[in-house]
């Protein structure tokens, strides 16, 4: 018994259709499996980076607390320097604290990092402006007293604004 063209087509066309249907079902299943794996990977990465992000927020908050004028004054009281040297020591302290925390910018938003950087710069300019107002004969204690007084009279503390921004951004990750 020989098969003709029609018989070959009768077997071939349903086989091709069956292969095509199976192909599309298998492709759909494979795609959903890849999506599940991607979701698992993202979830795992998120679980690993969340503690790093929260640690970055903590370290940046600590940085801002350490460079607050009242905290700097407490740490500098024991130094016996003239006003110029005292202000330079304060500026160096602020810069060292900042440099110690530079790597934290990787874990926070660009906007938050800009707020923190701006707050630090405003603090530096605050110290520099007071440095320029005191006489050359002023002692380090005189400078610290004037710095404390000026900080009390200061309108709007940029470090407080930055701390608030940290709390707002960190809250997004804690609540999620």
Figure out the total of helices.
6
Shape: rod-shaped
Termini separation: 72 Å
Radius of gyration: 32 Å
Which structural class best describes the helix and strand composition? mainly alpha
Oligomeric state of the chains in view:
single chain
Task: Explain what you see.
This protein has 176 residues and is an all-alpha fold. The protein has one domain (50-175). It contains 6 helices and no strands. The model has no long low-confidence stretch (mean pLDDT 88).
Task: Describe, in short, the structure shown.
The chain is mainly alpha-helical and 176 residues long. The chain has helices at residues 5-66, 69-76, 83-100, 110-133, 140-153, 158-175.
Could you list some keywords that capture this structure?
176 residues, mainly alpha, rod-shaped
């Amino acid at each position: 018994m020989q098969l003709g063209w029609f018989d070959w087509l009768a077997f071939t066309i349903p086989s091709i259709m069956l292969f095509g249907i199976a192909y599309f079902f298998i492709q759909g299943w494979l795609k959903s499996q890849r999506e599940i794996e991607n979701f698992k990977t993202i979830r795992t990465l998120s679980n690993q980076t969340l503690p790093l992000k929260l640690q970055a927020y903590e370290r940046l908050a600590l940085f801002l607390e350490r460079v607050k004028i009242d905290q700097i004054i407490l740490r500098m009281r024991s130094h016996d320097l003239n006003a110029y040297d005292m202000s330079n020591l304060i500026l160096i302290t602020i810069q060292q604290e900042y440099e110690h925390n530079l790597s934290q910018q990787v874990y926070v938003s660009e906007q938050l990092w800009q707020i923190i950087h701006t707050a630090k710069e405003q603090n530096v300019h605050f110290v520099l402006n007071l440095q320029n107002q005191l006489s050359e004969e002023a002692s380090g204690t005189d400078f610290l007293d004037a710095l404390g007084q000026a900080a009390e009279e200061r309108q709007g503390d940029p470090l407080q604004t930055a701390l608030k921004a940290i709390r707002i951004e960190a809250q997004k990750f804690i609540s999620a």
